Amino acid sequence: MVKLKKCLNEWNATVEALGQGKQSILIRKYRTNLQEFILYPTISYALKDDYLGSFKKEYQSFVEENALPATDHDRKEIKYYAKVESVIEKSNNQIGRLSKFHIWTNDHVKSYLQNQKGFVWVLRVYTLHEPIMAERTSGMRYANLLEDVSLEGIKPVLSDSEFDDVINQI
Fold first, then answer.
1. pLDDT score at 1
2. What average pLDDT does this structure show over 2-17?
């Protein structure tokens, strides 16, 4: 049985957007050397007063509803696993053309990148067979879960044809 402990720390609304097929990419200032990870929901972004302004209007209610993950003390609900299908380096202008693959505003993405090139992580996201509550070690970007997560019975969020369409458009 395949199991995994490595996780990517990501704000819960983004994790849910990935897990519900509303988003297919992450935009970062750096590459990743990981090919797969559990999506670990965090809350830090939700603590900002004006956080909704970073998201497209049509997704703001979704973001508000998904600002915080389900928790049990230090444990957070884990629902998704992701495979990095590719990492593509793009200029700020090129990244602006990928707007339909994420829930953030273009202004937010530009502000985050600060006129630097960005790295677009194209992710194939899967739903775990059933959600689990898990705790992680400390880490800014990545961490390890304190227990293994089984990847048995995972199901892709997007069908093969839907995901192929995303790949072809990117």
1. 66
2. 95
